[in-house]
Amino acid sequence: MISQVAIEGLRGFAEQQIIRFAQPNGDFGSGLTLIIGPNNSGKSTIVEALKLKSSSRASPSFHSGMRNPHTDYVKINFTNSDGSTEFVRSIRPGSSECETSISTESGAVYTVPSRRYFNPNFGKTSATGRNDFSRTLSSHSALRENNLSYFESRIFHLEQNHSNFTELLKRVVPEITDWSLDQIENSSYFVKIRMGSKTHSISGSGDGILSVFVIVAALFDSEENDVITIDEPELSLHPAIQKRLAEIIYEYASDRQIIISTHSPYFIEKSAILNGAEIIRTWDRGGRVEIFQINSASCASLKALLSDNVNNPHMFGLDAKEIFFSSDSVLIFEGQDDVVLWPRVVGRRPIISNASAYGWGAGGAGNIKNVVSVLKGLGYRRIVGVLDNNRPKDLTNLKLSFPEYMFVALPADDIRSKEATSGRDAVIGLMDEKWKIREEYVEAMDDILTSMELFLTTEIQNNGG
Fold first, then answer.
1. Same domain flag for 416 and 440
2. 72-97: string of b/e by CB count within 10 Å (b at 16+)?
3. Across the 465 residues of the chain, what is the mean pLDDT of every consecutive 10-residue run?
4. Which of 21, 235, 347, 463 has the fewest CB atoms within 10 Å, measured from its CB?
């Protein structure tokens, strides 16, 4: 397995960036590494680098479009779980040719690309096991291509292991009753899928079924300590299928190393993170890729969010997990009332309106520090925390703990008015019964919103994170 990879000069990696990978320990999801980030921020480049570790070519080549213009060379260093090291690197700047220390004895990385379409009609080939397929794919196909080459040989192998493969396939898509390898009159072969009473070719079943077929093929005959990378497993998949696929990936990641690049919050799982799964966030900062991972401080905060909020399941619900995929402008509120009513407070201020809110709030002012710590560990630079006016101590502590971010207090003790109860006095909120900002708070709130706009638009100097 792989402990870490250092990438320099490959595509957007202008400076060396180091990525540490989760190590399976037998617990659910412990070997899972999630690579997240916006489009064109380096996620697929990491998958490309890992694919090179399977290559049996003596000297892979990097064309000019793959070499970062700031370096004009590529250096990729692998550190394996046993402490050994391997490399792939340009022989000199400006040259496409490389040298490598990766031998054919090195463990193969089974790579599932984002482009999973394969030729629906193909000739007969010998059945190919997973390691041979991985090496063939890495050695003879481009790092990024439109079709999945050589997968036909895997299909003949799957047919020989029909029962086990089909059992796993049906766990992801229960509507599939069976599949088979068949032949048409001109002797070409094709994959036939049966769903209920209907039978389709795999291409006629839709891109989602084809995608699941390829991903399940990467999992079903894998073994302990194998390394599997999957680029964007969610493509063309219904949310229900994504959730079932994610569950199986977590299971397999208990004793295998699985690395996925994804835009889907369905693949971020609470128990997997508590068991050791890694989250990596990629950023494109002015054409240069930067990598951030949860560090020890942010890891403790994340675990606090996950384990100390039994009565607030929304704290790490789907809406909350979407924040990991948002742009670099985040608003964190105390509770759900603030999130719901905030658009009425902001009005026509697109800079603030376009910022992402963390879920349905942090579950109280005391939790804001944990959310901020997690996002800081993942490289977010524009964070604004919004508190009620009756939390001066929390506001002060947040400003002292995170001086690089902005924290403000509403001019009222709550965003909305609340009637008195047996255990609480009445609260006069920021907004009146018609959900308008009270006249006495309009000027103060306008000043707060103006300062937030300034913070969210001020250029941040790139100091390496």
1. yes
2. ebbbbbbbbbeeeebebbbeeeeeee
3. 96 96 96 93 91 69 92 95 93 93 78 87 80 68 63 89 94 94 86 90 86 94 94 95 96 97 92 90 93 80 71 76 90 94 93 93 90 93 95 95 97 88 80 92 96 90 44
4. 463
